[in-house]
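User: Show me an example of a complex going from sequences to structure tokens.

Assistant: Sure. Here are the input components:
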Amino acid sequence: MTMTMGTVDESQRTLYPYVTGSSVVAIKFKDGILMAADMGGSYGSTLRYKNIERLKPIGKHSLLGASGEISDFQEILRYLDELILYDNMWDDGNSLGPKEVHNYLTRVMYNRRNKFNPLWNSLILGGVKNGQKYLGTVNMIGINYEDNHVATGLGNHLARPILREEWHEDLTFEEGVKLLEKCMRVLLYRDRSAVNKIQISKITEEGATVFPPFSLKTYWEFAAFKNPTAGAEGSW
Amino acid sequence: MTKQHANWSPYDNNGGSCVAIAGADYCVIAADMRMSTGYNILTRDYSKISQLADKCVMASSGFQADVKALQKQLSARHLIYQHQHNKQMSCPAMAQLLSNTLYYKRFFPYYAFNVLGGLDNEGKGCVFTYDAVGSYERVGYSSQGSGSTLITPFLDNQLKSPSPLLLPAQDAVTPLAEAEAINLVKTVFASATERDIYTGDKLEVVILNASGIRREYMDLRRD
Amino acid sequence: MFRNQYDTDVTTWSPAGRLFQVEYAMEAVKQGSAAIGLRSKTHVVLACVNKTNSELASHQKKIFKVDEHIGVAIAGLTADGRVLSRYMRSECINYSYTYESPLPVGRLVVQLADKAQVCTQRSWKRPYGVGLLVAGLDESGAHLYYNCPSGNYFEYQAFAIGSRSQAAKTYLERRFDNFNSSSREELIKDALIATRESLQGEKLRSSVCTIAVIGVGEPFHILDQETVQKLIDEFEIVKEDDVPPAEPQPEGEQDAAADQGAGADQGGGDAAASEGAAPMDI
């Protein structure tokens, strides 16, 4: 969506999203932050895009994940590119950490909602700087908080109960990935807009890595999956 | 295109309850730490209490993004005040500032329900209670937020504050001792948590008195 | 007859490639009472000399807190200094509103210098007549900067500006090698001695100087007068007879060094000498 700041008429505002990404799930682990998202982009209920990257490193210390309107997310990436470029240009040994970037995003999202012209996203920002882990989220009306594990969209319903059960402070990288895969599998089964092409990303003191996409092993042979209407009496 | 989406709303209600009680030489301000939206709990560890000055603390519930903006606005204004006057703002002054700040957005209000507690210039406990657009009143105790319908009558019954209609005006501060007030606050939150789904997880209590500021925490039901 | 033709507005060049109005603004800094700054790895100490225009008046405030992590000491037109301090405060507040973290000192200094630079390139403006020693702490450590009306800025280990600052500078130049590893107390002591140097024989008392400190775990604050007096006594800095006589000054100018006063300068107000110096050469 192209948008201008200041007064805009209705046709220039996001009143509903066009292409959307589904949930992002993120956790703290022993050495930093892990994040997972699938690569689908839905046009309403149509699976329109199948290779959309929704996890992006921001500067040296941060990692951003987004669900919601893809175009708005890409606009946010442009804002952040500019922010980080400007920050680097000082070349003075100071740099914006995850806390600063999250706070900046919070102000951007809240400002846009104040203009009745929201950026239609839920964002997750994670990172590590000076040994300090950070994981926070902000949505399109500016609600923001930090936690040890966060999720957007349906992930709040389906993934966080699992995380509340199983997350602990000193998860190793392998355990963390396993836990995220468990969450993503549940989402894949139960979120109709989720697709089986998933990216996991890691950020530690050493920097961010987005791992190549992979798919989850699934098992569809459960009786309820094979014949979901069995037992539901009806004319068809 | 047929309408597929609910109209976008700039507001949400993230729930939560706040209580403040003023005593002769202390003030107790408390709020739970749950943040919700609809039937979702977003986080169980979010502080709704913000210290605005040495002897002035605000507890706020409602829409988190507005509450955060309000807290930041007041903190920035307090910094400017300190630069200009070389002292901390008094609680009654902050109370007026909060009212003005809320009223400034009268036609696109902060969806925030606040109680402000602290010590006045005489060292007496004071509590100010607000609506979202800035009308306020100094009282002896107050409760705001999602659990206030359960908490307020409880406090009314326990504290029996003198009617503000009495002439000459009677002092509104509660007769309780500090420890009793803290206990009462813990009890009302434990009770509110039983019935209000937006209140729970953890209670944060801030106590202000002549010796300074102190915080206490108590676990609440998490269901 | 020999009137300077090139100093009627800031934007006019002299054939020698100088901007006289800017240089005059730099002169204003030299006429203000002295301000001193010195820095270790973890702390920065600012000090200044308080002068009054009259026995009946109090002195003007010359050290300002900008934020928890930044403070300034000024010399020159105090009124301009206040305006710039207010600008710096509001920049700090805006930055921490957006990022919830303190504004890096070096960046504020550049913004400040850019603001001063604009005044050297607009015919309808006047350069700020104030020099600022900016002390601060950020993730890259402790910093001390000097900002001048020309729009230039420099980072220093130790520096002094204002009237008779040369004596203080001489002292600092002799000692600065050790400053990086100095303790907070040693820095304050050196600040006091450097201040005494610039007093030129007048007795160092807490009433004629202000000291401020910023450091790791210590937000910027101005020391109160009793503390300063105690430190002066403790260090036994005041030995009136020991005070080395600095450059001789014409009698009349001794007292006239209050800010904005037509005043004494370290070189005894030799217009010829200072006219030769380019604005950056202080």
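The lines above are the inputs; the final block is the predicted structure for all three components together. The radius of gyration of chain B is 17 Å.
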